[in-house]
Design goal:
mainly alpha
């Protein structure tokens, strides 16, 4: 005999809003969710434009694009704090560059950058997964004119500003627009 399936229930009045993508912050109404996604999109486009003007480091900034959309997903999560972003991304860039200088471009430098970046993130409690890609990119490409740490640091600063804007926007949209 088949068991009867329970009927779907509606959330109780006053219950929290359904969780957003991957269980992060509460999901907003469609238009508000698109408005929130606009900030990381504009930030990444701005980064690409600056890259075109100032250098040829397209691959190095792929991890920052990932960071921008991870911030959109849940701006209040500790993975997306300014401290975590700065420590992990800048640490990964420095480690990748140092290993590139010491071992040359290749898998040894990349493997060392990967392991040391993970160790740095664990030791400093600054887990930001896109930073692993940063270490790999700098380890492979730092000596080819594409390892400008200063420019990368400026770009990390721009993404850090995005963290603050996303948090403020999410807070404001959650109060103005109801799902």
């Amino acid at each position: 005999m088949a068991e009867a399936q329970p009927e779907p229930t509606q959330p109780a009045p006053g219950a929290p809003a359904p969780l957003g993508p991957l269980g992060g912050r509460p999901r907003l109404a469609g238009r508000a969710e698109l408005l929130l996604a606009l900030l990381p999109t504009v930030t990444v486009l701005l980064l690409l434009w600056l890259l075109k003007l100032l250098s040829n480091q397209q691959l190095l900034f792929a991890s920052l694009a990932s960071s921008a959309f991870l911030i959109y997903l849940d701006p209040g999560h500790r993975t997306n704090s300014v401290r975590t972003l700065a420590v992990s991304q800048l640490g990964a860039a420095v480690l990748g560059t140092a290993l590139h200088a010491w071992l040359g471009p290749g898998y040894g430098a990349a493997a060392g950058g990967l392991v040391l970046t993970i160790a740095l993130m664990v030791a400093t409690d600054a887990m930001h997964p896109p930073a692993v890609a940063t270490a790999l990119n700098f380890a492979f490409r730092a000596g080819t004119g594409e390892g400008n740490l200063l420019l990368f640091g400026l770009a990390v600063g721009l993404v850090a500003v995005l963290v603050l804007l996303q948090r403020g926007s999410a807070w404001l949209l959650a109060r103005v627009v109801r799902p």
